[in-house]
Amino acid sequence: MDKQTFLLWAERNARRIGVKKGQVIKAFEKEMMAQAGSDAPFEIPDTMHVNMRYSYGGQSRFFREILENKRLMGTRCGTCGKVFCPPRSHCPVCYEQTAWIELKGTGKLLSYTTVYFATSSYIKRVPYIVAYIKLDGADTAILSNVEMKDIKKAQVGMEVKVMFRKQRDGRITDIYFKEAQ
Amino acid sequence: MRKVGIVGIGTTQFRSRWIEKTYFELAFDAVKSALADAGITRDRIDCVVYGIYNDFFERQFQPDLFVHDYLGMAPKPAIRVSTGGATGGSAISAGFAQIASGLYDVCLVAGVEKSADCFDYETGKSSPEVLKAISYTADMTYEQPTGRTAAGSFALTTIAHREKYGNPTELQMAKVSVKNHTNALLNPVAQSPIALTVDDVMKSPMIAYPFKRYDNCLYSEGSAVLILASEDVARTLKKPPVWIKGIGAALDWAVIGNRQDLYSFESSRIAAKKAYTMAGIHDPVEEIDLAELHDAFTGTELIAYEDCFFCNEGAGGRLIDEGVVMRDGKLPVNVSGGLIGCGHAVGATGIMQANEIVMHLRDEAGRRQIKNAKTGLVQSIGGPGAAWTVCLVLERDEK
Could you tell me if A75 and A132 lie in one domain? Predict the structure, then answer.
């Protein structure tokens, strides 16, 4: 491609996949260098993208209570008494419908990791802690972020409490955890 | 159940990027060499199992359709298997069932994966976008939005294991990294043959605590293929068959918080036990000559020693300290370099591991040959916290 054709090509493609023109130019400089008729690999900018309207189905109340009432819910199996958080509409052992219960929002850290290298959606947030937390009164553990001043002080067994973000949008990240004291 | 033999193998190089090949072209190369290795043409193939993990990696949903087309396998029956990092192991297991059941006599098992076409324009790098494509394999309702990465899910288990048993230590993990990178120096298809020191590993940047850069495998592109045949057919072909003597598989709770314990991989323990029972193995360290274990992370390999019953739970670190798992040790682990040294071309990985064992059992492994190897173990794991495990025991006939 000559330079003029390349720049127009980069601009059209950048618009098509929703990134900056300069980023496409930088990533595809080799394209401009390759001669027509050559066997050099030919690359194109591309994306795979689908918009959704996802239904939480039987889990809906969990997310709505967080969004509207800052309330953390679990579910309880009436047959075996097991309490699930994250909630399940059915007990996986008894196969019976569960009932909603409110949880206190305190719990213990079962294990954790600190992420220093993340996916492109999260790379600006690093480092951050991801942990399994067993809430008081629950029998299963939920994965969530733990925010603390000194992230190196995270440890297994640490007592934590649920926090609700000021701006909530109906996703699981509306909640996170902090040290209990 | 009929006896099933591996009669042909083919593996392309594992590379960070195969810019000059599409996924279907990569598969073609490995299939062509596997057919040549078996001394048969594609007419002899009765059915195909494709192992391909991530549709984003190939930029194609149902990529098996177009591999099948490109290989000229139409109209033979085919299925595609996708079980995360365990895809290769599961594909072999599915192929085994096709032959053992008596339904078909010759089955092609083809694993292939791209990944580095995923590209993050903002950082100008592939890795963050590769990780994003993988992240959609995590539970989208409760877990993926927290930003936990694939390494993160195994790091959580490693931390829990360390809390309970005091290991794996940073040093033990570094030793595994050095072992696997060094083993890869002898493997011509490996992506990361590096003469590393423990110090290099310890000083490398943190990725997901406690895993540092050199504790992680790298994503690869490549293809690995094997051909399975019934005993009748296998005995008529040119190479001595390697028999699949044992298969064990399990799929544990994928939401790790639902598990009883976080410090071991229950799926791996169950899969290993089942494979050993089927193969009649009672003392793995005595009866297995070499093992290819799924070392996506160094900590995971150390836990795998325990999960495959090479030692008691909590004692995995000792096997690297005492040199048991070194290439000159009692039970060499990942002589190929494993995922850390050879690379992780997901759908192809489990088949690459099996092909490595086959080469040793046929005495074809060249400079990295383990002498007189008769029995080998393959462990293929995948999904959040090793939800999936497939274990295979491979064995040759007495000479």
Answer: yes
Domain that holds residue A132: 57-179
The angle subtended at Cα B173 by Cα B164 and Cα A119, nearest 5°, is 95
A16-39 pLDDT, tens digit per residue, is 999 999 999 999 988 888 888 889
Contact at CB, A113 and B160, closer than 8 angstroms: no
Do A26 and A99 sit in the same domain of this protein?
no
Contact B132 A173 (CB under 8 A): no
Tell me what percent of the residues of chain B surpass a pLDDT of 90: 100
Number of domains in chain A: 2
Q: How far is CA B50 from the centre of its chain?
A: 15
Tell me how far apart the alpha carbons of residues B294 and B315 are, in angstroms, rounded to a whole number: 18
Residues from chain A that touch B252, judged by Cβ atoms under 8 A, are none
Whether A66 and A96 map to the same domain: the answer is: yes
CB-CB neighbours of A160 under 10 Å: 24
For residue range B187-217, list pLDDT tens digits in order. Answer: 999 999 999 999 999 999 999 999 999 999 9
Contact between chains at B143 and A122 (C-beta distance less than 8 A)? no
pTM for the model: 0.97
Q: What is the ipTM of this complex?
A: 0.94
Q: Which residue has the tokens 């092909």?
A: B355
Q: Is any Cβ of chain B less than 8 angstroms from the Cβ of A171? A: yes
Domain borders along chain B are 4-118+219-234
The residue of chain B with its CA nearest to that of A142 is B257
| CATH number belonging to the domain at B4-118+219-234, selected among 3.40.50.300, 3.40.47.10, 3.30.70.270, 3.40.980.10 | 3.40.47.10
User: What distance in Å separates the CA atoms of residue B122 and residue A40, rounded to the nearest whole number?
Assistant: 25
- A111·B156 Cβ contact <8 A: yes
Q: In this structure, what CATH number is given to the domain that contains residue A82?
A: 2.40.50.840
Q: Is A142 in Cβ contact with B142 (below 8 Å)?
A: yes
Query: What secondary structure letter does DSSP report for B125?
Result: B
Find, among B57, B109, B60, the residue nearest to B80 by Cα: B109
Judge if A67 and A153 occupy the same domain: yes
Residue of B nearest to A27 (CA): B124
